[in-house]
Specification:
Layout lengths: L7 E5 L3 H10 L4 E5 L2 H10 L1 E5 L4 E3 L2 E4 L11 E4 L6 H7 L1 H4 L4 E3 L6 H5 L6 E14 L2 E17 L4 H11 L4 E3 L3 H22 L12 H17 L9 H16 L5 H7 L10 H11 L4 H15 L3
Parallel strand pairs: 1-2, 1-6, 2-5, 3-9, 6-7, 7-8, 9-10
Antiparallel strand pairs: 3-4, 8-9
Helix pairs in contact: 7-8, 7-10, 7-12, 8-9, 8-11, 11-12
The chain binds 1,4-dihydronicotinamide adenine dinucleotide and ketopantoate.
The site of ketopantoate has 11 residues, from strand 8 and helix 7.
């Protein structure tokens, strides 16, 4: 990332998160967004329409691309916002562009950075605790925000996260450096493990997690996840599962009570979900460590069934 004055950023897999990010970054960078043809056509025709807490209006200046041949040679940094189920495929498709460049992941779940590290030396781990959705081709909604974006060095050039943070911050997005982003990814995953599958299965917004019938399931999911994270040596910011649950029910669930998480849209649209990077991942690790994870195994099984039998 040499030219901070006018950096060139490529966003890979631009949907709800990636197009919203593109819309903000375009004020401080030249932004190329690798997206599907329907988004590309709408954005070329009339720009990106944004609504919500990141601003309302039509944003020009984003260049949509639908293949690596359309990406210019001078990319300073790559940010991946594809679903974790698509990480390898999109890295393969854009391998020539990614190689040798810093690449950040804002994806949920555990395991994306390891895949990205097969394609480039400098990987930046990231989390975003904001709710994004697609309202139509080239049209996104940003509905609520509970914490700043976190970015931290995963591998390679240790200065790369700082340079990306500068760009993101200058675009007006709240962002913080994270010097233990491996634990940071688990910290963010706690929220997704607690609410994403339940909301997807129940067709309900995040507030459903506080329902008296559901709360006990959330408690089970999180206590098991804590035991597994502990066995993995992950340092979470709350000392115990119950300390995190207090934060979840007093801050995160109220912040997102009225909105639907990303997995809800996947199941509703008949797409594969990220369950195997979240609850399914916890269940797999639990097995390896001899830690029972009945809640996570059960919820992962239900989501896999729902994926295979679209409503
Ligand atoms: N939606 C949300 O509120 C949040 C989502 N996240 C995470 O961010 C990541 C992205 O989530 P969303 O933006 O909601 O998903 P999304 O499904 O809206 O966007 C991903 C986009 O990537 C596109 N894509 C995949 N492969 C492609 C390829 N080869 N070429 C071009 N486009 C390709 C898909 O068609 C899709 O439009 C996920 O890991 C999600 O868990 C994180 C925080 C909040
Ligand atoms: C924070 C939250 C719940 C925001 O929607 C999210 O990460 C997701 O939807 O996957």
């Amino acid at each position: 990332m040499k030219s901070l004055q006018h950096p060139v950023i490529l966003i890979l897999g631009a949907g709800a998160v990636g197009l919203s990010l593109a819309g903000k970054l375009t004020t401080v960078a030249r932004v190329y967004a690798a997206c599907r043809a329907a988004h590309a056509a709408a954005i070329r025709e009339r720009g990106l329409i944004m609504e919500g807490v990141w601003g309302d209006g039509t944003v020009g200046g984003i260049t949509p691309v639908t293949g690596p041949d359309e990406v210019p040679p001078a990319v300073d940094a790559v940010v991946i916002t594809a679903k974790g189920t698509d990480t390898r495929a999109i890295c393969e498709e854009y391998a020539g562009v990614i190689r040798g460049r810093p690449m950040a992941s804002l994806q949920n779940g555990i395991g994306n950075e390891e895949i990205i590290a097969e394609y480039t030396d400098t990987v930046i781990g990231g989390t975003v605790t904001t709710n994004f959705s697609v309202a139509g081709p080239g049209r996104v909604r940003v509905q609520s925000e509970s914490a700043p974006m976190h970015l931290g060095a995963w591998s390679g050039d240790g200065g790369a996260p700082g340079r990306l943070i500068e760009i993101v911050r200058s675009a007006g997005i709240p962002v913080e450096a994270d010097d233990d982003i491996r634990s940071g990814k688990w910290t963010k995953a706690l929220l997704n493990i607690a609410v994403n599958p339940l909301c997807a299965l129940l067709l309900a917004p995040v507030g459903v997690a506080a329902d008296e019938n559901i709360r006990e399931i959330v408690v089970g999911l999180i206590r098991e996840t804590y035991a597994v994270a502990d066995a993995e040596g992950v340092r979470l910011p709350w000392a115990t599962a119950d300390d995190y649950l207090a934060h979840l029910f007093s801050v995160q669930v109220p912040d997102f009570a009225a909105v639907y998480p990303s997995m809800y849209y996947d199941l509703r649209r008949g797409r594969r979900t990220e369950i195997d990077l979240l609850n399914g991942y916890v269940a797999r690790l639990g097995k390896r460590h001899g830690i029972p994870t009945p809640h996570n195994r059960c919820i992962a099984g239900l989501v896999r069934y729902a994926e295979a039998h679209p409503r």
